[in-house]
TrEMBL record:
It comes from the Bacteria. CDD domains: cupin_XRE_C, HTH_XRE. GO terms for cellular component: cytosol. It comes from Pseudonocardia sulfidoxydans NBRC 16205. This is Transcriptional regulator.
Amino acid sequence: MATPDIRGDKPAAVASWEPIVGAIGPKVREVRQLLGLSLQQLAARSEVSAAAIHKVERGDMVPTITTLLKLSAALGRPIGFFVDDADWAGPVGVHVRAAERPPAPIDWAPEATGVGATAIASAGERLRASGVWAEIEPGGTSGDGRSVRSGEELVLVVKGVLAVDIAGERYRLEAGDSLHFPADRPHSWHNPGPDTTTAVWWLLRG
């Protein structure tokens, strides 16, 4: 009975994993740069030294499972993102032309009246934040329901005025004003002015 050539099988098995292991570092670097983090900032978030992260990104060191878990948590990505053998084939940036904006996310302000809104950014597998451009007519409102969702919201008034209520706290935003708040607090808004208000929302899901 012939003895299997184990030595002949091993290199092929190892080779099949090499592209996956080799892609971990570039993926870490890509997400870190997308989030605008320096090596030192990611080190502070992940409790992994900046030197070790630098080695991982350069491919000089294969991270342990513990290190990869820490990095994936700090970067807000599932660990499977870094070990998936599917390469990202799309562009780094997402360009949304003004004339081609999709509708605003359905859960942004589902009961809004007197509001025209489009998405300027959409959350996906690679990017977690989304954005909304809204034109709010005089008297336009988010509706009777008070939105509650996980994450954060940032609203910037470009033109006009916007009255915002967050868990009983009332704010009046004028052109150039912004308001940043946790989205899990009940909140609503309306346009109390005589003119159309233009506002931009930035949404980060929890």
